[in-house]
Write a structure and sequence with these properties.
The protein is α/β, with parallel strands linked by helices and 273 residues long. The chain is built from 8 helices and 9 strands. The two termini are 32 Å apart. The structure holds adenosine-5'-diphosphate and magnesium ion.
């Protein structure tokens, strides 16, 4: 249906797992998870009684109203927030910030403004791959895959918002991390740029097959990209539905617009919110 992107997916010897990393095949397990924040001395229950098993190599989206605890859940998986109760494992290990087998991408690109596109990707890659020439080669391939061939030396301020998100996406996948957590990565983009980047994400994922947890409030985006969509209630966030997305892969976001089943699934999600 579409061209495969030219990302080299052979494991590189320098990509050998560090002791910080878990086993990719273990996937993600969340059991009895609840978390309170404190605001002015009062507890704010952000997420409540979450049980969720995500098998390795699955693409799962989490949808729900603003403030229902989606970012909290990703912060917990990323090891940035320690939950009050419950058991969470990512690749069989407790979440920990800075784990090399986990990558995170935010709604607004977090590119370093004083580094070029290539150097922004290199920033992440250098921690894992020592050989400079090999890094340069992989960065070249990734920039090409995200349609930014020739922009290696451009600074973030010289790129549009969409282009910056492409760089951020390339960076998220540069490490071929086993686990990728995306927090509304396309929320700030116009509709057309959004579709282009959703397709790009699909292509990168189909090559690399990380275990992805994507948070979004865009129901069509969740259906187009995912194997499974988890619907959360408003705060305190609990899981109210867990829907299998039985659309064939590889997918093409534009082509899905004329697939009846795609619209049925989006309608079903609206019904569950
Ligand atoms: N650091 C924090 N301190 C206190 N309250 C917080 C903090 N982060 C989030 N919250 C509260 O927890 C709830 C869930 O927030 P969040 O996970 O960001 O939701 P979402 O990403 O679904 O919009 C909200 O009510 C928010 O105000
Ligand atoms: Mg959020």
């Amino acid at each position: 249906m579409h061209d495969r992107v030219s990302v080299d997916v052979e494991p590189h010897p320098a990509d050998a797992k560090s002791s910080q990393a878990g086993s990719a095949e273990a996937g993600i397990r969340i059991a009895g998870l609840s978390h309170n924040y404190w605001q002015q001395g009062k507890p704010i229950l952000a997420v409540k009684d979450i049980d969720l098993d995500i098998p390795a190599h699955t693409f799962v989206s989490i949808v729900g109203a603003s403030g229902c605890g989606k970012t909290t859940l990703l912060d917990i998986l990323s090891g940035l927030v320690t939950p009050q109760s419950g058991l969470v494992t990512v690749g069989g290990e407790s979440p920990q910030a800075g784990r090399k087998d986990c990558a995170r991408m935010f709604a607004r690109d977090a590119l370093l403004p004083w580094r070029t596109a290539a150097k922004n990707i290199d920033f992440a890659l250098a921690t894992r791959l020592a050989d400079r020439a090999q890094r340069a080669e992989r960065i070249g391939e990734l920039l090409k895959a995200v349609g930014l061939d020739g922009f290696q030396n451009a600074y973030p301020r010289q790129l549009s918002q969409g282009m910056r998100q492409r760089v951020a996406l390339a960076r998220s996948f540069a490490l071929r991390s086993e686990f990728v957590f995306l927090d509304e990565p396309f929320g700030a983009l116009d509709a057309l740029t959004k579709v282009a980047l959703q397709d790009l994400l699909l292509k990168l994922w189909e090559e690399i097959r990380s275990t992805v947890v994507l948070v979004t409030h865009d129901l069509a985006e969740a259906v187009a990209l995912s194997d499974r969509v988890i619907v959360m209630s408003s705060r305190p966030g609990t899981i109210v539905a867990d829907i299998d997305i039985d659309l064939r892969r590889p997918r093409d976001v534009k082509a899905l617009q004329s697939v009846a089943r795609f619209h049925e699934l989006v309608a079903e999600l609206w019904g569950r919110l």
